[in-house]
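Design request, tokens follow.
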């Protein structure tokens, strides 16, 4: 059975005084358990709208979302707890997503408190320890505040928060945005390792095709709110068929380093 199945998603953004924008114009996306999929596209292609739709945070003009065989309908928070445990977001800017007044231990415990209130305190503590270990953070860091963490550590805490409810799917929105090259490589390696070790499926959103392809064996190219190309990452990179994919491949090519004069 598929883990997440989105069919015929349509979203129109309507703003007073502005023309409506058809941000998603019939997107289908099926994610199998453990599968890693990259969603790539230029700015404005509809990636963020699709992420919000996949997380049931975006009202749909048409289409359906089914997770683990069960229909997902945006609604009261309590009614979607099962879905929030199953599908977790890895936020774009981890440092901004962490409450500066809360210690790491409480930040990582919070999703369990909110989504699984029946879990006993001792079990919750064990879950927190497990999530910190999974992302390679030492237990010594658990009493620190976010302001006392490095950028890389904050990113790991955000990932631990996403993992602590043992989701089957992580949606990472531009996980490499704003990172310098060594930290990009670390972030890619961490997401790959966690996905493989925990069997968690990944949907990674990026405008950088080459980086996303390094993490995900499967790529979907979005343009104008539609999936214009879909296939194995190495094939899309080596022989893009759509103009949108070709433009992304060209943009991903690393400029040659000029030789010293
Ligand atoms: N709240 C909104 N109101 C009106 N238009 C919107 C809104 N959100 C997005 N749009 C428009 O919908 C289209 C898709 O936007 P979206 O943010 O989903 O694309 P994106 O691929 O994530 O872009 P980026 O990479 O720049 O974040 C764009 O034309 C955008 O201007």
């Amino acid at each position: 059975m598929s883990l997440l199945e989105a069919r015929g998603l349509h979203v129109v953004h309507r703003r007073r005084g502005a023309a409506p924008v058809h941000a998603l114009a019939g997107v289908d996306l099926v994610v199998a358990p453990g599968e890693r999929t990259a969603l790539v596209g230029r700015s404005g292609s509809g990636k963020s709208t699709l992420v919000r739709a996949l997380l049931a945070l975006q009202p749909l003009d048409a289409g359906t979302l089914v997770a683990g065989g069960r229909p997902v309908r945006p609604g009261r928070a309590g009614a979607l707890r099962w879905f929030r445990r199953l599908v977790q977001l890895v936020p774009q800017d981890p440092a901004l997503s962490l409450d500066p007044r809360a210690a790491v231990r409480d930040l990582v415990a919070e999703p369990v408190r909110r989504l699984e209130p029946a879990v006993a305190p001792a079990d919750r503590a064990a879950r927190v320890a497990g999530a910190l270990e999974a992302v390679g953070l030492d237990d010594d860091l658990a009493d620190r505040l976010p302001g006392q963490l490095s950028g890389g550590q904050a990113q790991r805490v955000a990932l631990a928060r996403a993992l602590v409810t043992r989701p089957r799917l992580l949606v990472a929105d531009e996980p490499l945005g704003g990172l310098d090259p060594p930290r990009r490589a670390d972030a890619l390696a961490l997401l790959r390792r966690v996905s493989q070790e925990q069997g968690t499926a990944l949907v990674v959103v990026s405008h950088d095709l080459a980086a996303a392809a390094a993490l995900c064996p499967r790529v979907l190219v979005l343009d104008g709110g539609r999936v214009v190309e879909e296939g194995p990452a190495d094939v899309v990179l080596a022989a893009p068929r759509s103009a949108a994919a070709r433009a992304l491949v060209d943009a991903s090519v690393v400029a040659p380093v000029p030789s010293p004069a």
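Comment from the thread starter after seeing the answer: thanks! The chain has ten helices and ten strands.
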